[in-house]
Design goal:
This protein is an alpha+beta fold. The chain is built from 10 helices and 6 strands. A 4-stranded antiparallel sheet has the order 3-4-6-5. A two-stranded antiparallel sheet has the order 1-2. The radius of gyration is 47 Å and the shape is globular.
Length: 295
């Protein structure tokens, strides 16, 4: 009897333990996860060391990969920038643009770049100084003097414009020889519009115009806008190499008697054009003369 009771109690105890495990399985499971989380958060020294090494290596690999990628991208970007800069700096043919060299030494008569002085006219009433024809407010030309455009002046002009075109510039003939009668019409129209005092600052009275000499040429747009163009700069820098001078330079209005004309060149030949250009003087200053009307 006593043995039977003990057996019964043992069976009941076993059944009770089994029921407890089944009922608390969720709690036990959560505790195991909590324990695992705690272990991960505070691992043993060995595990921490392994974890740190693993993490460091992974981070190192990421940094290395990122650095390599960044370096590669920078190299690609740099290479692209160099190619772009080179492409922008070089013309379509792939060659570097030629340096714009301004010549200061006059060529000798044997050189291909030599431009002879214009032909002289043995006519009364024309003033020459050191072989150069002078036409300004002080020195006039006879009313019947009509030589037309000087052939050497014309040839040198088109040689100059051809060389300018090789630099991508467009310089073209706008006005050349003008007769006494035609200049009279032009001048009188300006006087009627602006008055004589103003007209005298930018237009020559008949008989005093360089255009009547056949040695002066106006290029492109005959107004102040031309001064802002690359053609005007090139013309000022290089016209002397073809025997021309910029006749009415900026800041010399009181000396030449006329306003700045970036478009007006005068042919004198390379012997004189280099000398005047290198001196930095106007024709009036170079020869020691003035340019003033008598009345």
């Amino acid at each position: 009897m006593k043995r039977s009771i003990l057996i019964t109690l043992a069976i009941a105890a076993a059944l009770s333990c089994t029921a407890c495990g089944s009922t608390d399985s969720g709690t036990t499971s959560r505790r195991k996860f909590a324990s695992a989380e705690t272990t991960t958060a505070a691992p043993t020294e060995a595990a921490a060391s392994a974890y740190e090494e693993s993490t460091t290596e992974a981070a190192s690999e990421e940094v290395t990969t990122t650095a390599e990628t960044t370096s590669s991208e920078e190299e690609t970007t740099t290479a692209a920038a160099v190619e772009t800069t080179t492409a922008e700096a070089a013309p379509a043919g792939g060659e570097a643009p030629a340096e714009d060299v301004i010549k200061t030494e006059a060529p000798s008569p044997e050189d291909a770049d030599y431009a002879p002085a214009p032909a002289k006219h043995d006519i009364a009433g024309i003033t020459y100084i050191q072989g150069a024809l002078i036409a300004n407010k002080t020195y006039s030309l006879p009313a019947d003097f009509a030589p037309g455009l000087d052939p050497t002046c014309e040839n040198q002009f088109y040689k100059m414009t051809n060389d300018a075109s090789k630099q991508g510039l467009y310089i073209y003939f706008a006005s050349g020889f003008r007769s006494y009668e035609y200049q009279s019409q032009i001048y009188n129209n300006y006087v009627a519009r602006d008055g004589q005092a103003v007209a005298d600052t930018y237009s020559a009275r008949p008989g005093h115009s360089e255009h009547q000499s056949g040695l002066a040429i106006d290029v492109n747009s005959i107004d102040d806008s031309f001064a802002l163009t690359p053609e005007a700069k090139w013309l000022a820098d290089h016209c002397h190499e073809y025997g021309f001078i910029l006749r009415y330079p900026q800041g010399k209005e009181d000396i030449t008697g006329y306003q700045y004309e970036s478009w007006h060149v005068r042919y004198v030949g390379t012997d004189l054009s280099y000398a005047i250009r290198n001196s930095g003087l106007t024709m009036e200053e170079y020869f020691g003369i003035d340019s003033k009307y008598k009345d």
